[in-house]
Amino acid sequence: MNDLSRRRILQGALLGAGALTLNACRNPFSASSGSAGGSSSGPVVFGVSAPMTGDSAEYGAIWKKAFDLALAEANQAGGIGGRKIQVDVQDSQAAPRQAVTIAQKFASDDRIVAELGDFASPASMAASSIYERAKLTQFGITDSHPDFTKGGEYVWSNAQSQNDAAKSQADLAHKHGKRHAVVYLDTDWGATVWKIYEKSAKANGDTITYSSGFIASSTDFRPTLIKARQSNPDMLVIIGYYKDAALLTQQARSVGFEKLPIVIANSAYSPQFLALGGTATEGVRLSTTFFADEPRPEVREFVKKWRGRYKETPDMFAAGAYDAINILIWAAKKHGATREGIHQGLLKGKDIPSVSYGPLTFGPDRRVAGARFLEVVVKGGKYVLADGAE
Amino acid sequence: MLSILVSGVINGGAYALLAVGISLIFGVSNLINLAQGSVFAVGALTGWWLIAEMHWPLWAAVIGVVLFTGLLGLVINVLAVQPLAGAPPIAALLATFGVSIILENAAQLVFSPETRRFPQLLSSDDFEVAGVRFGTLHVVILTITAVVIAALAAFLRHHRLGQAIRATAQDRQAAAQMGIPVRAVDNAAFVLASALGGLAGVFVGMYVSNINPTIGAMAVFEAFTAATLGGLGNMPGAIVGGLLLGIAEAFGIAQWGDGARQLITFTVLIAVLWLRPSGLLGKARTLAAEPMTGTFFGSGTPYRLHRRQAAALIVFAVAVAPFLFSDYVLEVGAQILVFAILALSLTLLAGNAGQMSLGQAGPLALGSYASALLTTRIGLGFWTALLVSGVVAAVVSVVLVAPSWRLRGHYVAIATLGTGMMVAAFMLNADWLTGGPQGISGIPQPRILGFRFETPATFYLLNLVVLLLVIGVVRRLQNSPLGTVWSAIREDEVAVRSAGVNAASYKSLAFAIGGFIAGIAGSLQAHQYGYIDPSVFNMQISLLAVTIVVLGGISSPLGVVLGSIVLVGVPELFRDLQDYRMLFYGLVLVLLVRFRPQGLLGRAADTSGGAVRGVLRTAPRRDTA
Question: How many helices (H) and strands (E) does chain B have?
């Protein structure tokens, strides 16, 4: 490499550097750098940090569908004060390292008035301090980790804390037997649910006959399930998402769980569970906050719109994401499409409309309290409300 | 007992089918093909599409998939692997890694990322042994594996092309001199192996029943372990290895739970390499004496800055950049610097001692966890923890890798890959120490004299200072007599050993220093995120470090910084490409390896052998002193 091209590289580098965002008039070493955020003209933009590639990409794809549906409706109805609403979706692969970068990108971007995500609690929680510092609302859709909203005043979620969801799963299992064999996804989420489940089950006087974590990328669960069966349980309890639960259910039926009840986590509520699991899913039970055939008008309308647009039945993730963005839009309409406006909207809002909860109000822990759980069972290849449930 | 054995055999049959392709390519082209898992995933998805959407019968779909993936193999070899024939094996390995990223993400775009059910054309529950139901499908998988291997054996023994493949595998140069078109033989091996990968995709796809574009990612390592267990390059060995791994996993999982799966897989891999590197059925052959990195990289003239240019760059980076750039750019900058430090851990080892490590995620994880535990459990200060975590990473990784030094070439690299993955698998399983899957949170931010590091600018500066210190140490070592000994080992290990130098100890020393540097990078990372869990330290991280150091010019510390800017920064630049982001990243990776295998700034230079002569003159004295 000769001197000329060396100089050219240096020049290019400097030019490129100059072209990047110039942030004068600020102290980059001080932590108090909250931006006002949200210009008053142009579109209103929500940032989304979500896995669009990698192992969890399919959940990110569901979110994207939910946002597209919600935005189409909201923009049809005139947006926010005549301004169009948009989402800026950034791919995090649900990895903390990338979620942190995205958080910094959104925090530095004045167009962004609030953020949605990330999918996995570890990624979301790694980013929380950045959102908090920027006074930018971080709205978790699936972040059920009990500590997530403790990350700061600007950290909110419409997901059930696992303190409630795992307990309701344990209560449901309690109704069907006293000896539980439990397998849980070996991630932060799964391990957290499992700990709360174990505590709740013991409080109910039930016995855990077997427990083991499992890895999402595993394809053969037979050895684990054989061991679980040998512990002589009344039922199998699966703490995992739909694709894990479907595989586990199929294999469980081939190693001696043919007749025993199987109870799955509410996160596995999805038509995909039925499609992937086939006939093995017959008789599987779960408790869920969202049930597509629930007669409530909000649910009926949402399911109808989703089926009309995507020719499929929406699941937990779809309903959660659709609610989340609509809650932010509602807050922006009430208190202004700025970072602070949305924060105020969530803080002061009462009876915010939603599909999963009906009219909701956030508690002091920035979560929604008092969700009703419905017991659902698979019958004839479909989810139906269990007998005796409302 | 019997039921677990049966389930292990069923699963092992699937591993065996996958392992055959990997073993074949390794035997013929002496290449670790990381793309085999993605070809397998593409085969599964194509099979699903032909059967579920196009309603082809099974036999037609199998033929269609085999033709398609065979063609895919040809394309991979011609475009990505063969042009690197003159380059060291590590370049080809990185190229196949790039191809696997491209295939996986292309498959996500074409087929959408969702998991789907593979049509169950063969019954999977019509037999029962010891309470375990299995079916025609599982019998068919085992039969197909056996038939394929018998057919392959007959082909290799009797057909002219098969004989050419064997000749090439035995001695590439001799084969070429006898008029065998070795490039065409490589093509044939790739086509065969990829067709087998596709075949495995259809049947294993049916076996696991739920498939998506990322199913190949882990499968490739399990298949690779199975192939190593049976003996790399040995076809019947692939069956034996697959079945044994399946059985070992089944019993291990029954004992410790499914979370231990990866720990079992990689422990088996390491144990084989320690005890019987040629595998159960492989003949103990003289292992290729070619170091992974080759002399080609090491002797590339490193690009050097003048003192004044370096000073100007440092002043710019320290005093101007934090004020010039947004927090977002500085955050990316801080990450670029951490990865530059991680990649520098390879500079002495790979660039000078000529030994590549594919498992630097291991010491990175050790450093992260050590630092996190020391500060949160014992209340040690950040700065002490930083140094201690470097030491911990160095000691543990040396102990784990030391028995592998008697191996050569690819086998050491495979051993480092295994140890790297084993460390993360251990972190996942050692709940009592590491919090298992929940990781460790609340790791305190660094402080100095009451000043808290919490903004991107402060982390950026902290990392920059550490990076400059590390560069200083690495350059000093490179120019020391020690550096000369390492270079001599790289250029001609046999000669150096004949001169009475204990090459393994010197390599261990390089590995220890590398482990220390990687451990420091891990500590920095842990304190910046405040949270770590085992999923952070995956294979991608290890390969990213390798790619950075290769593209940076393997022995040039400055090049490493540039490589890190390109490889950590580029995915950020591609953010606007949305779903196409990782696809383009894979393309850039393949193109960079293809056109700049000697590094972005490096320049290939001829080997003078100067370092070896230097050691031959001085080494005996040094060793006895």
Answer: 27, 8
- The rounded distance, in Å, linking the Cα atoms of A325 and A348 is 17
Q: Enumerate the residues of chain A whose CB falls inside 8 A of the CB of residue B578.
A: 52, 89, 91
Dihedral sign of CA atoms B587, B589, B590, B595 in order: positive
- A315 cis-preceded (ω within 30 degrees of 0): no
Whether residue A215 and residue B262 make contact (CB cut-off 8 A), yes or no, is yes
Mean pLDDT, consecutive 10-residue stretches, chain A (390 aa), reads 50 46 54 53 92 88 96 95 94 88 92 93 88 94 87 92 89 94 92 94 96 88 91 95 91 88 91 91 92 92 96 92 97 94 94 92 89 89 76
- pLDDT digits over B323-346, tens only? 888 888 999 999 999 999 999 999
pLDDT of residue B595: 84
pLDDT at B298: 43
Helix, strand or coil for residue B332?
helix
Partners of A100 on chain B (C-beta within 8 Å) are: 331, 529
Burial class (CB in 10 A: 0-12, 13-18, 19+), B617: exposed
pLDDT of residue B35: 92
For B83, phi and psi rounded to 5 degrees?
A: -60, -15
Q: For residues A73 and A151, is the Cβ–Cβ distance under 8 A? A: no
| pLDDT value of position A375 | 92
Q: Which residues of chain A does B531 touch, with a Cβ-Cβ cutoff of 8 Å?
A: 96, 122, 125-126
User: Out of A258-267, B120-129, B430-439, B533-542, which region has the weakest mean confidence (pLDDT)?
Assistant: B120-129
Structure tokens given for A113: 């008035």
Max avg pLDDT among B74-83, B176-185, B279-288, B443-452: B74-83
Residue type, A159: A
Contacts 24+ apart (CB under 8 A), B603-608: B603/A1, B603/B300, B603/B301, B603/B303, B604/B296, B604/B299, B604/B300, B605/B299, B605/B300, B605/B301, B606/B299, B607/B295, B607/B299, B607/B491, B608/B299
Which of B115, B581, B584 has the highest number of chain A CBs within 10 A, making it the mutation to test binding with A? Answer: B115
What is the predicted pLDDT for the residue at A53? 86
How many residues are given for chain A? 390
CB A20 within 8 A of CB B326: yes
Give the A window 42-71 contacts with B, CB below 8 Å.
Answer: 52-55, 57-58, 60-61
Residue B130 vs residue A161, higher pLDDT = A161
| List of chain B residues whose C-beta atoms are within 8 Å of the C-beta of residue A221 | 258
Q: Say whether residue A272 is in contact with chain B using an 8 A CB cutoff.
A: yes
Query: What is the pLDDT at residue B14?
Result: 83
Helices A57-76, A316-335: axis angle to 10 degrees equals: 40
Rg (CA), chain A: 23
H-helix or E-strand spanning residue A384: strand A382-385
B548-587: b (≥16 Cβ within 10 Å) or e: bbbbbbbbbbbbbbbbbbbbbbebbebbeeebbbbbbbbb
Q: State the ipTM, two decimals.
A: 0.83
Q: Indicate whether B302 pLDDT > 60.
A: no
Q: Mutate one of A186, A208, A247 to test the B interface: name it (highest B CB count within 10 A).
A: A186
Backbone angles phi, psi at B394, to 5 degrees: -65, -50
Q: What are the CA-CA distances from residue B429 to residues A181, A191, B436 (Å)?
A: 20, 12, 6
B168 pLDDT above the threshold of 70: yes
Type of residue numbered A316: M
H helical segments located in A109-147: 121-133
Contact A136, A339 (CB under 8 A): yes
3-state secondary structure labels for all residues of B494-555: HHHHHCCCCHHHHHHHHHHHHHHHHHHHHHHHHHHHCEECHHHCCHHHHHHHHHHHHHCCCC
Q: Give the per-residue pLDDT at B404.
A: 82
